[in-house]
Predict the 3D structure of the following.
Amino acid sequence: MIVFPNCKINLGLHILDKRKDGYHNLQTIFYPLPFTDVLELIPNTNSKTAIEFTGTGTVIDGNPEDNLCIKAYHLLKKDFPQLPPVKVHLHKAIPMGAGLGGGSADASFMLISLNEKFRLLIPESQLIQYALQLGSDCPFFIKNKPAFATGRGELLEDIELDLSAYTIILVNPGIHINTGLAFSNITPSPAEWSVKEIIQNPPATWKNSLKNDFEIPVFEAHPSIKAIKETLYTKGALYASMSGSGSTVFGIFNKSVDLAAFTEKNYFTKIIN
């Protein structure tokens, strides 16, 4: 079985307050984009190893056991001991730690693939609960539709939003953002406006109202990320913002865009039409 875990962008991201469990309540819009990794899953019934994992593309750093695809397998294995050993290959194209949810997408697509391949008959509502154990934005990728997210990102309300008529540009400078440190530099506050209401208007109206709270501390620490956003506006973006806690910045355009200013700096770029 081969599936294609896609990335997402955040349209607005406001931190409302810090919870007693250490997480933060927030509001944001998750919007899926057709830029994907490739995940292949096949049975490996003759193996004594529960899961054999290999990867290509972008190098995946860290301990393999911390990989969310592997964690997803072991999470289901606890409740479904009949799961056979598997071989998993992940070709990584989505930048990691970039605010695009690539790792979360891989984990959620792994859950979905295991459920379908081995006919576990897990309903969507339960898959969402499994996904939440792997990460706050993993539940979004189970439904994989535009959504208004609250709670810590797991409470999802489907919304009508279609940006397919626009060109979306992703720019990632390769800077790793410490999300915990970024959170510590944000002062939570009640929302003056609901992001769900703002996105009812065209993207050309979003610039002064649809904001990402992470931009203030991240731009202060990394002026080059702020410069990406400014350059996107200079090139005619209707709207530009950092996605999640960064460091990817995206621009929404109604025309073609020359990306030389970014490629000359060896930044990762992706055009989504």
